[in-house]
């Protein structure tokens, strides 16, 4: 039974399948009801990606299930236990500055380019072709293999919640939505909206609008502010300040006239919200620069003071009362994902990933005094508690062995990460790949790409993992030593 040979023989088909899937813009959009009465809760793009994968899986001979367009699965085998592979087909907004069309699936120099190639369409396709290789090679698993397709992982997870109200959860498994070798813990995640009411100002330099960022779990790549002054000579002073700021910091702060107002734009670098150190937050740059201006209005200046004193360019919440850390998972990580303001209010979206030994209540209690001091409001928008499994758990040991056998990497060790994956959606599920330790992480960034060589390697790893996890003697129970 040579299922690895089957993977190699289907390389071209696997690449084409990913290209077809990447070509579908599956960024979450407004719900759609068709003329025929079908309801697509996450928009047409997400639905098209979902339908694409189900159709391809059905053509491969798998049984498929669509759960009211909120999610679905692809089944292989008839065992009573379910070994789950949990992936997702939605993607974060593409942003600007791509070398290739982000939805082209362009192939060049051994890479497939496009939004979702790393997160998470590429790994989902790899898992599907791992299942195909096992099936075509005549393998009969002792347990049912189920590839579960989520449709709003990057946002609210309501699809997966709905799916599991209708379908059984897997007994154990993995999600190919993080990095190798294997993840045994994920930090807790909480997203807050912090808001400050403003009073319209008369005279002076007024802030008319303020925007930045695309998603809570992305480092903001761009920010924009529009200011207005009765005396246009003020604009010349701001332009001089911007030039001096650029010279001093190297940050890209630009200005231009827009009617009777002045537009200020900032360019940073996007990154995943779990690893903000890999990016440059345009919102933090904008707030720092606006802090140098003499804006009219006590409330907006209080807000700027709060941001620059309590957040600024820090990534671990130390000045916001939540700079916690622990041995298993390290520092808390704080990312400012979005900002939106006008003359009436300004709202900040903050995404926090906290250590596995802490609670959300401790995070909130740490932040609250600063919010109260500046007379602001705070709302929790999304919350996921941390998960943690023993590093020597049978599932972790098995996946580690599969990874090591395929790569020869004896140095890497199981990890705790800040990212939030579908490992949180069911018990005994862990993140397993698909980013290799030495490879560039371009998730949530422009020019996201996947090496074809790695694409095939992860497929072989997932095939070996599914083979190992569906052996009759595999169990989650610890080995018992006779006394």
> Span between N and C termini?
40 Å
Helix fraction? 25-40%
How many DSSP-defined strands? Answer: 26
Specify the structural class: alpha+beta
Mean of all residue-level pLDDT scores: 95
Low-confidence segments, ≥5 residues, pLDDT <50?
none
Strand content: 25-35%
In one word, what is the shape?
elongated
Helix count from the secondary structure assignment: 11
> In what order do the strands lie side by side in the largest sheet?
15-16-14-13-19-20-12-21
What characterizes the major β-sheet?
8 strands, antiparallel
**What gyration radius follows from the Cα positions, in whole Å?**
24 Å
Describe, in plain words, how this protein is organized in 3D.
This protein is of the alpha+beta class and 483 residues long. It is elongated and about 80 Å long. An eight-stranded antiparallel β-sheet has the order 15-16-14-13-19-20-12-21. Strands 3-4-8-5-9-24 form a six-stranded mixed β-sheet, sandwiched between helices. The two termini are 40 Å apart. The mean pLDDT is 95. It has eleven helices and 26 strands.
Map the helices and strands.
Elements lengths: L2 H7 L1 H12 L9 E2 L5 E2 L3 H16 L3 E4 L5 E5 L5 E7 L18 E2 L2 E3 L7 H16 L7 E7 L7 H9 L5 E4 L2 E2 L3 E4 L1 E10 L8 E7 L9 E7 L4 H17 L2 E7 L2 E7 L14 H9 L7 H13 L14 E2 L3 E2 L1 E9 L3 E10 L5 H14 L3 E8 L2 E2 L5 H14 L7 E3 L11 E3 L2 E2 L13 E3 H18 L14
Parallel strand pairs: 5-8, 5-9, 9-24, 10-25, 11-23
Antiparallel strand pairs: 1-2, 3-4, 4-8, 6-7, 7-26, 11-22, 12-20, 12-21, 13-14, 13-19, 14-16, 15-16, 17-18, 19-20
Helix pairs in contact: 1-4, 1-11, 2-3, 2-4, 4-11, 10-11
């Amino acid at each position: 039974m040579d299922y690895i040979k089957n993977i190699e023989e289907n390389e071209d088909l696997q690449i084409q399948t990913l290209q077809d899937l990447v070509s579908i813009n599956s960024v979450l959009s407004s719900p759609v009801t068709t003329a025929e009465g079908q309801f697509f809760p996450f928009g047409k793009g997400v639905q098209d990606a979902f339908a694409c994968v189900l159709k391809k899986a059905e053509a491969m001979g798998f049984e498929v299930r669509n759960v009211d367009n909120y999610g679905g699965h692809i089944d292989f085998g008839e065992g009573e236990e379910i070994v789950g592979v949990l992936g997702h087909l939605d993607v974060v907004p593409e942003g600007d500055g791509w070398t290739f069309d982000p939805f082209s699936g362009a192939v060049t120099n051994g890479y497939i380019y496009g939004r979702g190639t790393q997160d998470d369409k590429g790994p989902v396709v790899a898992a599907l072709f791992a299942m195909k290789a096992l099936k075509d090679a005549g393998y009969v698993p002792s347990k049912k293999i189920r590839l579960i397709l989520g449709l709003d992982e990057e946002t609210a997870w309501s699809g997966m919640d709905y799916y599991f109200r209708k379908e059984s959860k897997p007994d154990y498994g993995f999600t190919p939505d993080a990095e190798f070798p294997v993840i045994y813990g994920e930090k807790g995640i909480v997203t807050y909206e912090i808001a400050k009411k403003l009073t319209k100002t008369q005279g002076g330099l007024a802030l008319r609008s303020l925007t930045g960022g695309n998603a809570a779990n992305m480092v903001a790549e761009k920010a924009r502010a529009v200011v207005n002054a009765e005396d246009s000579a003020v604009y010349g002073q701001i332009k001089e300040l911007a030039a001096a700021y650029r010279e001093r910091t190297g940050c890209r702060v630009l200005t231009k006239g827009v009617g009777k107002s002045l537009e200020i734009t900032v360019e940073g670098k996007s990154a995943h919200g779990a690893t903000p150190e890999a990016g440059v937050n345009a919102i933090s740059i904008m707030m720092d620069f606006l802090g140098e201006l003499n804006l009219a209005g006590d409330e907006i200046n209080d807000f700027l003071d709060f941001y620059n004193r309590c957040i600024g360019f820090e990534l671990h919440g130390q000045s916001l009362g939540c700079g916690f850390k622990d041995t298993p998972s390290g520092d808390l990580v704080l990312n400012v994902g979005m900002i939106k303001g006008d003359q009436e209010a300004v709202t900040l979206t903050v995404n926090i990933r906290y250590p596995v030994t802490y609670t959300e209540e401790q995070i909130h209690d740490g932040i609250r005094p600063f919010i109260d001091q500046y007379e602001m409001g705070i709302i929790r928008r999304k919350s996921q508690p941390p998960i943690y499994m023993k590093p020597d758990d049978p599932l972790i040991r098995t996946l580690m062995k599969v990874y090591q056998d395929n790569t020869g990497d004896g140095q890497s060790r199981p990890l705790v990460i800040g990212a939030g994956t579908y490992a949180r959606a069911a018990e005994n599920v862990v993140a397993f790949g698909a980013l290799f330790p030495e490879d560039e992480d371009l998730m949530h960034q422009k020019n996201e790409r996947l090496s074809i060589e790695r694409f095939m390697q992860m497929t072989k790893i997932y095939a070996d993992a599914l083979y190992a996890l569906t052996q009759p003697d595999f169990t989650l129970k610890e080995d018992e030593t006779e006394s």
